[in-house]
Amino acid sequence: MFQKQQMEIEVAGKKISFETGMIARQANGSVVVRSGETLLFCSACATGKAASADFLPLRVDYQENFSSAGKTLGGFIKRQGKLSQREILISRLIDRPIRPMFPEGFYNEVQLLCYVWSYDGVTAPDPLAITAASAALAISDIPLVKPVAGARVGLIKGEFVVNPTIQEMQESRLDLMLAGTEDAVLMIEGYADFLTEEEVLKAIELGHEAIRIQCHAIHDWQVKIGKPKMKEDILLVIPEATHQAVEKIAKEKLLSALRIIKKQEREEAQGAIKKQVMETLCPEGEDKPAHDPSMVEKALKELESTIMRKMILEEGVRSDGRGVKDIRAIDIAMSYLPRTHGSAVFTRGETQSVAVCTLGGETMAQRTESLEGEDADRFYLHYFFPPFSVGEVGRVGPPGRREVGHGKLAERALRAILPEKEKFPYVIRLESNITESNGSSSMASVGGGCLSMMDAGVPVTRPVSGIAMGLILEEGKFTILSDILGIEDALGDMDFKITGDKEGISAFQMDIKVEGITIDIMKHALNQAKEGRLHILEKMMQASPAPKQMSKHAPRIETLKIKQSKIGEVIGPGGKQIRAIIEQTGVEIDINDDGIISITSPNFEQIEKAKAIILGITSEAEVGKVYEGKVTSVVAFGAFVEILPGKEGLCHISEFDNFRIKNMTDVVKEGDTVHVKVLEINDRGQVKLSRKATLPQASA
């Protein structure tokens, strides 16, 4: 019934197996990939004809089924549906290296679906997902220039490790995900504990060796069992006549328009040229124009790219008049928003971020649920990219995949500089509101986010800045661009973002649109990026040399540690005790399993009041210590005195005063405050008290 085909390879001492022919046989291509007891399924499907667009309509969805780890989604809704942030980020990791490997002119709709069906808690599924998607495409009839594969590299105890386990990654100073073909790296995303440029390059080289092994095996498997690819006549190629017609009308005008310094003026000029080209070659109302409108638009875009690239390579001049290493003018406004805990406006050229830092207690933590279990993130960054930032009308609502990706890059870059929880027990939320955009808004978010934390009084360990680098590569000749514009990102060959300080790198992300980028080119890009990064960091330090005092509007947090055996006493039956403390003092209280209690309030007196109550509940009576207590009841043989919240002792009638007492009610009543000394605590925890021991001795 089934014609199963299998393949097994070994990467860094770990076996990876591929299987097809049993699951999802009606898809264009499908594979099951397994390493250890982690198993992923990936399908590749495509429509038979091109979509009405001048781009590849590729959709990638990656999902981690909770059943793969023997779990069910928490909350009321048990069915998995909307992708989590982690799943969106991994979907992007699959998309970014595979997209450039479709042949030019292929515009058929393609969908890649990847599911984690079994998870062992040891083998990470994300690098396998990239390889699985590539394998499904390779053995399908969907055209693909070359197979792609993924790998992760960690730095554990001074040694680089390929595809480390989940447990090993907890000790790693590096989390590098990369993907590429047998010949070149196409995508890099990494977060590091301030590694040097040389260390990063070494990790990339090691990771690419693992990628080569996988790509070579997938190619051989494709030759052996793969379906014949779709015919080349499905590719939409721009006719030479269209190229010539567009060039004749637009070339001279674009030579001037692409040198206009201001973005909006340049785009208006480009828009006018496009309008003239379309009206001339595709007149409105004409049923069958001589030139296809979509091909005309694509030819115009290619002409713009050719002119801009030639201008940079031959003249060393960019659209806004800068040289290839020049950084745009930087302006920084600290404490821009008076009632926030911390804020900064970071403007670099025509890219601007209004960054806001908010501090809070544990209840402000971002709670997440994944295959690893539930977690509460004490630091997170939300990135907002409204349509007005590029002068457009558009959708406003939940974040798109681009916003999620940009926000996470900035967040991970800044995570490396956070103080330890013991030193700064606050949950930190950052917002990056992009109010203008013309290239590298994620790096503006890093600068603005760092400054807003310093403005809020967060004792960052070492400030960082970020920069986006570009590349123009033609026939072996290349030019690296610092601080790229939006047009240079769109029409160039590389987008390489790097964050860090003068000592090392905290995050980096690279997307490459063409093969041929060597380690030597990457080395040039990293070194040039360091120059630009330090220039930006210097401007930031001029605006904010050190973290400020915390805002008066920020809450205050005090922490104290109690014995784990006392946690139940503070919480009380059904939470009764802790709710009473919160109602009585107006504070927020969080207790973790280690017995660390965080008390949050904007009012210091409220915090001290709550601390006193908690210390009273958790304190234990000490023999020989004097306490101020409250009489809770009077009996014939003495008085019971509460010396600590919920802790009473007996002061016998003979220990109440220096003289003989006939009737206790003659000398004390319920509610009186008395000073007593603890004489003894017996095996049953009963406390023997003495008021007499605190009094001056009677004269003989």
UniProtKB/TrEMBL annotation:
Pfam families membership: KH_1 (PF00013), PNPase (PF03726), RNase_PH (PF01138), RNase_PH_C (PF03725), S1 (PF00575)
Enzyme class: transferase
Binding annotation for Mg(2+): D489, D495
The keyword RNA-binding is assigned to this record: yes
InterPro entries: ExoRNase_PH_dom1 (IPR001247), ExoRNase_PH_dom2 (IPR015847), ExoRNase_PH_dom2_sf (IPR036345), KH_dom (IPR004087), KH_dom_type_1 (IPR004088), KH_dom_type_1_sf (IPR036612), NA-bd_OB-fold (IPR012340), PNPase (IPR012162)
Entry's Gene Ontology cellular component terms: cytosol
Keywords tagged on the record: Cytoplasm, Magnesium, Metal-binding, Nucleotidyltransferase, RNA-binding, Transferase
Cofactors: Mg(2+)
Protein's GO biological process: mRNA catabolic process; RNA processing
Compartments, record wording: Cytoplasm
CDD domains reported in the protein's UniProt record: KH-I_PNPase, RNase_PH_PNPase_2, S1_PNPase
Reactions that this protein is recorded to catalyse: RNA(n+1) + phosphate = RNA(n) + a ribonucleoside 5'-diphosphate
Molecular function GO terms recorded: 3'-5'-RNA exonuclease activity; magnesium ion binding; polyribonucleotide nucleotidyltransferase activity; RNA binding
Broad class of the protein's primary localization: cytoplasm
EC code(s) of this entry: 2.7.7.8
Ranges where the S1 motif domain occurs: 624-692
Protein role: Involved in mRNA degradation. Catalyzes the phosphorolysis of single-stranded polyribonucleotides processively in the 3'- to 5'-direction.
Annotated family: Belongs to the polyribonucleotide nucleotidyltransferase family.
Protein name: Polyribonucleotide nucleotidyltransferase
Species of provenance: Estrella lausannensis
Gene designation: pnp
